[in-house]
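Tokens for chain A. Residues wanted.
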């Protein structure tokens, strides 16, 4: 009887050890999977930031990209999302906040927005269409009369137009980049061009409010943003250089580049200081206003974005 009890106890101990061992095994596998996913997400976020830099470079160098167009477009505009999924930027963005895939290229210019290594079907892009190239002439708060067909929303400057995109409840975003992640919740991708088959919940409901997996929720979309402050810091850097190169504002940049006056850049606090002969104003007064994603990436890299970008 005693040996029978001992045998039973041994079986229980063995079962407990096996259960414990299995638990340890499952735990180890889960931790490895989580670490692996974290590594993948880190790489994808790095690639999304690369795409963000390419978009910012395009916006800052818009006059040079379209240098043979008359009149030369001003700086600050972004390409429309690729909503028909043909790899090219669309000719116009009809929604206030347009969403589609990140275009790989634009017509007749050697520009590539999509970093290598990202599945283009999974990279989505939301843009406040007031900031779009060829976004139409009627959506500005103060539309100009007698516009040329190539005109964009004007004025486009430090305080106009108002922002229409939020990320995790924070406002002041101009554009967002998404990586859709694994299909979930019945999403059927295949050849789908429907945003609801890629982005989740509040990211696919057609409004300007978006959410990132980084905020901790059921959404698995990785998101990197471009804030108005980041956009403005870059525009100011370009404009300060332009003013220096053109011998000032009135009689200089304002005479050579129509967009300077039409976008009312002389009213900007930093730019007006330079126009009036101020000594080298800091073009980055808004650097403290970083996007959540930029702050995270900056902390990881040991530096902030500071309006700097890598170009393409
Ligand atoms: Ca397209
Ligand atoms: Ca998703
Ligand atoms: Ca939403």
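Reply:
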């Amino acid at each position: 009887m005693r040996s029978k009890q001992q045998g039973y106890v041994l079986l229980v101990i063995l079962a407990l050890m096996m259960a414990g061992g299995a638990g340890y095994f499952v735990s180890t596998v889960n931790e490895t999977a989580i670490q692996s996913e974290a590594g993948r997400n880190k790489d994808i976020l790095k690639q999304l930031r690369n795409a963000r830099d390419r978009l910012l470079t395009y916006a800052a160098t818009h006059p040079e990209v379209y240098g043979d167009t008359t009149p030369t477009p001003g700086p600050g505009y972004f390409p429309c999302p690729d909503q028909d999924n043909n790899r090219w930027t669309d000719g116009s963005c009809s929604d206030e906040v347009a969403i589609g895939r990140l275009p790989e290229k634009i017509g007749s210019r050697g520009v590539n927005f999509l970093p290598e290594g990202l599945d283009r079907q999974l990279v989505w892009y939301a843009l406040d269409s007031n900031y779009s190239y060829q976004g139409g002439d009627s959506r500005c708060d103060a539309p100009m009369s007698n516009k040329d067909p190539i005109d964009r929303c004007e004025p486009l400057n430090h305080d106009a137009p108002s922002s229409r995109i939020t990320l995790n409840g924070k406002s002041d975003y101009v554009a967002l980049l998404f990586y859709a992640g694994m299909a979930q919740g019945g999403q059927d991708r295949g050849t789908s061009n429907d945003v609801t088959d890629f982005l989740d919940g509040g990211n696919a409901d057609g409004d300007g409010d978006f959410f990132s997996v980084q905020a901790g929720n059921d959404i698995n979309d990785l998101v990197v943003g471009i804030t108005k402050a980041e956009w403005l810091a870059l525009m100011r850097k370009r404009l300060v250089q332009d003013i220096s190169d053109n011998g000032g504002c009135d009689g200089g940049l304002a005479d050579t580049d129509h967009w300077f006056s039409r976008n009312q850049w002389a009213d900007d606090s930093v730019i007006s200081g330079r126009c009036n002969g101020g000594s080298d104003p800091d073009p980055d007064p808004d650097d403290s206003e970083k996007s959540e994603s930029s702050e995270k990436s900056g902390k990881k890299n040991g530096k902030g974005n500071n309006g700097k970008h890598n170009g393409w």
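The first helix runs from residue 2 to 60. Residues 38-227 form one domain.
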